[in-house]
């Protein structure tokens, strides 16, 4: 195996182990057996199982963060927000779908609870940048943003856990339907 294949084998082994075992309890021996690598090979790439998880999380978050340049420009105060799926939304959906197996494992019962917070904060950042000029003047807008953050995180979680039959494009279509209903409510 080359370096990329070895890293991928180790990551897939960690994902498989997280289905039944908490991250701190995953043994390097069982992980290496599943990945079909030696312990010395594992340690050549990672210091610990937690390091595998954190590196994968950080790479995923950074990939999602880079998509923001494809989002629509923030709306000026008073402008009606079109609330539509952007090219950045589609790219994020594709990244999430590709990383589905990892996301389901890391947000599961044996995963890393801090990842959900990191992911939700990324969603919150996107919501704030896009919608803040329009909604920040509303009373208690902080609650609205928290509601939107939790809702978006739940929608993505539901999609990846329970409806993986929907492609990223189809999921963006679902989001477009939500946005259309929100536009009706706001008009």
What does it look like?
There is one protein chain. By secondary structure, the chain is an all-alpha fold. The chain folds into two domains: 1-46, Arc Repressor Mutant, subunit A; 49-186. The protein contains nine helices and no strands. The chain has helices at residues 3-18, 28-35, 39-45, 49-66, 87-98, 100-106, 113-135, 141-162, 168-186. Helix 1 (3-18) crosses helix 2 (28-35), helix 1 crosses helix 6 (100-106) and helix 5 (87-98) packs across helix 9. The mean pLDDT is 86. InterPro entries: Homeodomain-like_sf, HTH_TetR, TetR_C_Firmicutes.
Task: Briefly say what this structure is.
With 187 residues, the protein is mainly alpha-helical.
Topology:
Layout: H1 3-18, H2 28-35, H3 39-45, H4 49-66, H5 87-98, H6 100-106, H7 113-135, H8 141-162, H9 168-186
Helix pairs in contact: 1-2, 1-6, 4-7, 5-9, 7-8
> Share of helix among residues?
over 70%
Low-pLDDT sequence parts: none
- The sequence of SSEs as H and E is HHHHHHHHH
Protein structure class: mainly alpha
Q: What is the approximate shape?
A: elongated
Whole-number total of structural domains: 2
How would you sum up the major sheet? none
Number of strands: 0
Distance between the termini: 58 Å
pLDDT averaged over residues: 86
Beta-strand content bin: under 5%
**CA radius of gyration:** 19 Å
The DSSP helix count reads 9
């Amino acid at each position: 195996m080359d370096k990329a294949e070895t890293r991928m084998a180790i990551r897939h082994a960690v994902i498989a182990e997280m289905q039944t075992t908490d991250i701190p309890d995953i043994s390097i021996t069982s992980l290496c057996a599943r990945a079909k690598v030696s312990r010395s090979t594992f340690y050549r790439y990672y210091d610990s199982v937690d390091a595998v998880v954190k590196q994968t999380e950080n790479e995923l978050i950074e990939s999602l963060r880079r998509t923001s340049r494809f989002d629509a420009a923030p709306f000026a105060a008073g402008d009606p927000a079109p609330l539509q799926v952007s090219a950045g939304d589609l790219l994020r959906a594709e990244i999430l779908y590709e990383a589905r197996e990892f996301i389901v494992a890391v947000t599961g019962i044996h995963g890393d609870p801090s990842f959900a917070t990191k992911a939700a904060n990324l969603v919150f950042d996107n919501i704030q940048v896009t919608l803040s000029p329009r909604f920040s003047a509303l009373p208690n807008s902080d609650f609205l943003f928290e509601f939107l953050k939790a809702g978006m995180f739940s929608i993505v979680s539901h999609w990846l856990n329970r409806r993986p039959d929907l492609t990223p494009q189809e999921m963006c279509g679902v989001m477009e339907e939500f946005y259309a209903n929100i536009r009706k409510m706001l008009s």
